[in-house]
Structure formats: structure tokens, C-alpha cells
Amino acid sequence: xxxxxxxxxxxxLRIGQKYPDGYHAIETVMQxxxxxxxxxxxxTKDGKIILIVEKSPWKIPVGEENxxxxxxxxxxxxxxxxxxxxxxxKIILHKKIPLQAGLGGGSSDAAITLVxxxxxxxxxxxxxxxxxxxxQLGSDVPFFLVGGRAKVSGRGEQVRxxxxxxxxxxxxxxxxxxxxxxxxxxxxDRLKESRIKNQDDKISKQILNPKSYILYPKFLNDFExxxxxxxxxxxRWRNYFLEKGTNVTGLCGSGSTIFAMFDSQKKILDIEQxxxxxxxxxxxxxxx
Length: 288
Prior knowledge:
Elements: E1 2-18, E2 24-44, E3 49-53, H1 67-79, E4 88-94, H2 105-120, H3 127-134, H4 141-144, E5 149-154, E6 158-161, E7 169-174, H5 181-190, H6 201-206, H7 210-213, E8 220-221, H8 224-230, H9 232-243, E9 248-251, E10 258-262, H10 269-277, E11 281-286
Helix pairs in contact: 1-2, 8-9
């Protein structure tokens, strides 16, 4: 069977306290996109879980360092005798979401694999039970079990579905470099004492309201405070999109993708021509 694993953007992202285990509390609003990876998943009876990556421009691990393998094995162990004898899976990944881009590609692949195998292995686990497994793999994974637009908080285990926004065109631009999420958090912690808090919490709340969201071109992502100083080209892309009249623009997760939303095709014609001249990865998609 074929399954779609969507990319996501963050309409806001605030970083909270650091837990004793090293993870951080977050409060973010995520939105899935019509752009993403594709997975072909077949249930097998040989007990093996095999991952094959088809024609990817990026080097994708196919062993236990890949979340797809991790989540499949975790589900099988958790299911125990609920799985049929020698339950296995062959998974073919068509990778389109770039790595270290802040688009949640690995987390989305893991979540969709969880949903797919729950169906193919006929386990009938509830979303709540799947979410408890998902959070063990990463803070973004539970969100992709829900999709659409949702508020995510805590370590990522608290996911609240929100009313859909008006459909928007979304431009994604990623330079050749990627940003490791762990390193971004470490930089956030290192600069904690010297950071200047200049965001407006009121705007963060307005982003949750679909009627007022178009009126607020400002965008809140705490990672921008540490990422833009190290990678000024990302800030330049954000400014470029603002000049072109975007509704909302900013960093995706911890980066290194900048997204921009537009409400009409006409507004992005010039942008598309400019992107074709640049040596960057880019695509134009829509919100789901």
C-alpha cells in the first residue's frame, strides 16, 4: 500500500524550560503541507523489517539509525502476541523532504509508518496508544498522527487539533547547508543569559485565530534568535519574502528552510523566476 508523509511548517515556536533529561518544553503551532515523502509498505511473514530508499539525492540510513526502522520495531515489540507470527514489513521510501531542513521529514515518515503497520498488522491500536509510542521517537512524531493544523506543547506529546486556515500557497527555500536540531538547542541554551526577548506573546495567541492570522505578518520562532546570527543568508531570504508581500514568513523548526505564505499565484510569479536563478533547494506547495 502507498502512504503519504507530509512535511510541516511551524506557524509559531516558543522554547520553554529544559527538562532534567535534556529535552525542552515547547509550544508550537504546526501545519502540514501537500508536499512530502511517499512510502510503499507491504506486510510480510518473514519477521524482517526492511527499508529501501529509492533514488534519493540525500544519503539516507536504512538501519536502526532511521526512525522508520526504529518505530516499526518498537511497534512490533509493544504488540507482542497481538502481531501475527513472524510479522515483518518491506518499506520503500521515496524521499522528497530534504534532511536537516526543519520540515519534519524523519518524524513524518516515522508517524506514517506507525499508522500503516498498525493497519497492515491489524493491531487496532488507538491514536492515543500510538502517540505514546510516537513520543519515544521524537517531539514532532505525535503531531503527524493528527496532521492539519495543531497546537503542540510539552515535549510534543500534547497535541490539540485546531480549525483549518484558509488554503495558502507556501514557498519553501533551503540553502545547501542543514542545521542539526540538537546543536540548535545547545546554542539556544548557551546564549540563554544574553538573549534579548523581543517577541510579543499577544501575536503568538493571534496566530491561533484563523480570522486574525492574515493580519499579522510577524512570525514567532525562538530559534531565529540563534540561527539567523550564524546563518545570515536565512534572514535575507525572510526579508526578501517580506518585500514580496508575504502574509507569513519565517524559519521552519530549527531550520534550515525558510517558508513564506501567499494567498494567490500571481504574487509568487516573480519569486519563482528568482528561485530558478539561485543555487538552493526550493519548492512551491499548499497547506493541507
